[in-house]
Amino acid sequence: ERVLAEEFSVNRTTLRAALSALAGRGILETIHGSGTRVRALPSGQSSINDMADKVEASLLIIPSIMRACSLIIKPSQILSLERILPIAGTALRNGDSKTYVQAYLQFFMEATRVIGSNSINAALSACLPEAKNLMRMFDSYSLHDNEMLFSQLARILSAMRHADAEEAAQATQGYFSTLKELMNKQNLSA
Fold this sequence. Notes:
The protein is 76% helix and 4% strand. By secondary structure, the chain is mainly α. Helix 3 packs antiparallel against helix 9 and helix 5 crosses helix 7. The chain is globular, with a radius of gyration of 16 Å. It starts with a helix and ends with a helix.
C-alpha cells in the first residue's frame, strides 16, 4: 500500500478505499497472508452487465494510471501515441470498427507501458472491454457519438504531451464517463 500510495501520490486512506471498492466489485481479491491480486475477469461472451462492470472499473482505475503516466512519459513514447490517433481517426471515418477498436486498445496499453509495471498493465487489460464487444458497441453508435469519444482520446494525448497530470486524469475520466453514458442511452432505447 505504501508503495502504491507514493507512486500515485495519494494518501493511504484513499488507496485503501479504492482497493476496497475494487475488491467489492470483484476486480481485486485479497488473500490473507498472500496479499491482494487482480482477479481474472471472465472471458468469452460478455453480457451487457459485464461490459458495464468493465467500464465502471475503467472509471475507477484508468484515470489514476493516466495521471501517473503523464508525469513520466518520454517524447519518444508521445510520438508512439501520436501515431495511433490518426489510424483510429481514419478507421472511424471509414467505418472500420475493427481497426478503430485495435487503435483504441493500443492507445491505452501503449500509454501505460511507460510505467513499466506488469501489475498495472494487467489491471488495465482486465478492466478494458474486449475488442469484439467494443466493435459491436462502436458499430451501434452514431458517427457523432464515436467522434465524441475520439475527441476525448485526443484530449488525453494533449494532456500527456504537456505533462498535465490532472488534465490527463480528467480527460480519461471524461472518456469513460462518455462511454458509460452512451451505453446507458443505448440500453434505455433497446
